[in-house]
Write a structure and sequence with these properties.
five-stranded mixed β-barrel, two-stranded antiparallel sheet, single chain, alpha+beta, disordered N terminus, 10 strands, 5 helices, OB fold (Dihydrolipoamide Acetyltransferase, E2P)
């Protein structure tokens, strides 16, 4: 029977091989899990209830009427059917959990980095939150530019998609979609602080509960104070 020391050596060697296959010694902690369901194009739920937000990428949110918001979720579901086994890789250079309690991870399936795959296919764009660049930042940037040049995914489907690696995915309204606007916005009174949706300027002062939009882009001065986190996104909600 192998000694405990021998088993420890085997374990360390195994982890070293895994780290090497993903790009070097800078790899963060890894764990394995199974997928319960896909929430949207960049968020999944694991068996057991934990939520995972895919690191350094972003997709248009369902319910915002933005172009490609539903397609992004369908793309990830094709990659991650219910029950799929995944390996989750943390990034030591970035936050491990977001303010909603979601794990922030690179998701691998069968040796494939799905964060990279989604961006390569144009199903997602890169988002270096607050300018922070993680382990795969250079690769993500390169495949994002290639997808945009080739008009893949959202870059071909959404003519108003915005190229901004430091901001959330912004794609404009989907084809044939009419924006849902608060009654006060009728007549074109749209505050420029909210360039992707039509929200009237105050008065009155509106809350997130008063409008139909979620996860929309916010620019200063944000007169309704929708961007409580100061990250350029209004009314964030899972």
């Amino acid at each position: 029977m192998a000694s405990r020391a021998g088993l420890a050596v085997v374990l360390v060697l195994g982890l070293a091989v895994a780290a090497s296959s993903w790009g070097g010694a800078s790899a963060g902690p890894v764990s394995t899990a199974r997928v319960e369901r896909v929430v949207d194009g960049d968020t999944i739920v694991l068996v057991g209830g934990a939520r995972v937000r895919l690191l350094q990428i972003d997709t248009p949110e369902p319910g915002t009427a933005e172009c490609y918001s539903r397609a992004a979720g369908r793309d990830l579901r094709r990659m991650l059917p219910a029950g799929a086994a995944v390996t989750l890789e943390a990034d030591p250079a970035l936050d491990q959990v977001d303010r909603y309690g979601r794990l922030l991870r690179y998701v691998h399936r069968a040796g494939r980095n799905l964060n990279l795959a989604l961006v390569r296919d144009g199903s997602a764009t890169v988002w270096f939150y607050e300018g922070e660049r993680g382990r795969y930042a250079s690769a993500l940037f390169a495949v994002a530019r290639a997808a945009r040049s080739a008009h893949r995914g959202l870059w071909g489907a959404c003519p108003h998609a915005v190229w901004d690696p430091t901001g959330p995915a912004t794609t404009g309204l989907g084809s044939g979609t009419r924006a849902r606007t608060p009654r006060a916005a009728v007549g074109g009174r749209c505050d420029p602080s909210y360039p992707t949706v039509c929200i009237p300027p105050p008065p009155p002062d509106l809350d997130c509960a008063d409008i139909p939009y979620r996860r929309f882009r916010v620019l200063p001065p944000d007169p309704h104070h929708f961007d409580g986190g100061g990250d350029g996104i209004g009314c964030e909600r899972d």
